[in-house]
Amino acid sequence: MPTVRLTVAQALVRFLAVQYSERDGVRQRLIPGCFGIFGHGNVAGVAQALLQAAQTKEADLPYYLARNEQAMVHASVGFARMRNRLQTLACTASIGPGSTNMVTGAALATINRIPVLLLPSDFFATRAASPVLQELEDPRSYDVSVNDAFKPVSRFWDRINRPEQLPSALLAAMRVLTDPAETGAVTLALPQDVQAEAYDWPEDLFAERTWFVRRPVPEPAALARAVEVLSQARNPLIVAGGGVIYSEASDALKQFAEATGIGVADTQAGKGALAWDHPCAAGGVGATGSPVANALAREADVVLGIGTRYSDFTTASRTAFGNPAVRFVNLNVTAFDAGKHAGAALVADAREGLQALSRHMAGYHVDDAYTARLNEKNAAWQSVVDEAYHLGHGPLPAQTEILGALNEFMDDRDVVVQAAGSMPGDLQMLWRARDPKSYHVEYGYSCMGYEIAGGLGAKLAAPDREVFVLVGDGSYLMMATEIVTAVAEGIKLNIILVQNQGFASIGALSESLGSQRFGTAYRYRNPATGMLDGGILPVDLAANAASLGADVLRTKTMAEFEEALKQARACERTTVIYIETDPLAPVPSSQSWWDVPVSEVSELTSTRNARASYEAAKRGQRHFL
Fold it and tell me: What does each C-alpha distance from 64 to 13, 441, 462, 525, 549 come to in angstroms?
């Protein structure tokens, strides 16, 4: 068998450069690039291999220099999400803190069912110089390192202690990355001495390889059970999750909804699966959903969940579906999710499952009264949205006005990116999305700091779309680093930096729980009270953004903000629009609830009152058995 002598890192790079995925006859590179930050753990291994590949053209694996290891995982997730999980990026980091910085990103990827390949560096496999710089010593075992922290947040994990182990690990890694039911973070820990070790590799390892992304079809008996339940429904509701979009099943969903007349609610990951102004669209469902979808949820006798995890925000902590006789039909490519809420499990690809349901439910349609209720509720709700978008609040504008101006300004194919704080709730409730890829809110892990990095990945994946990143001051302060990466790479982002002097979302939640917004405002410590309730801090985030290389447009009024949006679109460079908002401005009610336990005993009247409200709401919570 012909062989070629390469280091482990060189073999890794050459292998990744010839991996492809294919679905529905469309083939693409599985891993078309690699983010990285180099240190002593990978500079002579993976870094050398990437350099050699670039200079000799022996492998095509472009390298992107990130500024924060967590951020580069977020960027890779943003990329993979925009590419419907058919492509992703690799991430290489040095030993120790460089690698553990990626753990949060790994958790985010796995929770969101998004593929990403992580290559943390590790200690010497030979232990020749142990303990090396940044090595964790565990007296129980010499085989433990900080990279073991990736195990619970990875869908596949391995440590390559010998070159001979690399081929089987790489094949397993690619299998998991391309399996729609198993995908998430894949971690291959690479000891720094092994990265540089040479080996005679079989040339077949570096032949082009195509990984076919499957579309499982429903099992006939399971399909029959699902149809039996659905056909008896008088007040059904569809909950469309991210699986609809990743499966590219939006057209199948539209056809099924039109054929049956069933209202379609969406999750954060599923928004845009059905255009907001479609007659069957009911908007977001759950704790931050629309009153339309939540009213349908309360009445629903059958819920068809498609590609959803049924998170607590979607189910309003298991209070959204109030009908005592409600039943669930769960169409999901993952059996784990299909079995939730004791539902009739339909384990299948979302598109294949919807098409099968359409064929077997021909002739079924909700009655005219159902349709009339949906139309009436939608019309009333859109008036509320219009009012929130044009509130005329002062002296500082309301956050809903910022969202409204942006929503009305953006083209259908433009992308909005968000993740944490008060904006995801307002977006799910109010945002009007038409295109399946136009709404990019990471709300599985809801990780502060995702926004700019995730936006960078989204723009890398879709350079023909304008990307608008919405980031609050709290998230910005946690991770603004990838502005520098965007500037260096010539990748244009539109960043709306919303300053409200603290944590608006947790502040509002704190108040509702009787904790009086404690510790949620950015203020000087007041010597008189000993609390952080003094004057506003002199922090200038706009100046900070400018120092990172972005063009900055400072705005104070809605008119200035709307003009800045036009300037940002016309600009060819990353542009930050800065505006201050009122964190106490009103927001429409979702008419829903989220379970955050309140202290059962307290000396504070505010907490005791909140506990009484909590216990009343808790009575509506139920198990679905």
Answer: 14, 24, 16, 41, 17
- For the sheet containing 26-29, what is the strand order? 26-29, 19-23, 209-212
pLDDT of amino acid 506: 85
Q: How far apart are CA 555 and CA 502, in angstroms?
A: 19
8 Å CB contact between 66 and 486: no
Under 8 Å between Cβ of 285 and 591: no
Tell me, what's the pLDDT at 80? Answer: 98
**For residues 76 and 116, what is the distance between their CA atoms, to the nearest angstrom?**
6
Residues 83, 71, 53: CA angle, nearest 5 degrees: 70
Residue-level pLDDT at 510: 85
Nearest to 141 by CA among 152, 150, 130, 133: 130
Residue type, 130: S
CA atoms within 13 A on the CB side of 136: 17
Question: pTM for the whole thing?
Answer: 0.97
- Cα distance between residue 191 and residue 135, in whole Å: 11
Mean pLDDT, the chain, rounded, equals 96
Nearest to 239 by CA among 377, 331, 139: 331
pLDDT for the residue numbered 364: 97
Which pLDDT score, from 0 to 100, does residue 500 have? 92
C-alpha closest to that of 481 among 1, 110, 72, 28: 72
Query: 503 with 591: CB under 8 angstroms?
Result: no
Task: Please report the beta strands in 1-81, taking only residues with DSSP state E, as ranges in sequence order.
Answer: 3-7, 19-23, 26-29, 34-36, 63-65
**Whole-angstrom distance, CA of residue 162 vs CA of residue 168:** 12
Task: Give the per-residue pLDDT at 511.
Answer: 87
**Amino acid (one-letter) located at 343:** G
Strands 116-122, 494-499: pairing is unpaired
DSSP string, 269-310: TTTTSS-TTSTTEEEE-STTS-HHHHHHHHH-SEEEEES---
DSSP H or E segment with residue 198: strand 198-202
CA 441 to each of CA 63, 363, 431, 587: distance values in angstroms, whole numbers, following the listed order: 26, 36, 11, 19
**Cis before residue 131, ω within 30 degrees of 0?**
yes
Contact criterion met (CB below 8 Å) for 185 and 110: yes
Measure the CA–CA gap between 516 and 533, rounded to whole angstroms.
12
For the chain, list residues with pLDDT below 50. none
Q: In degrees, to the nearest 5, what angle opens at C-alpha 331 toward C-alphas 325 and 332? A: 130
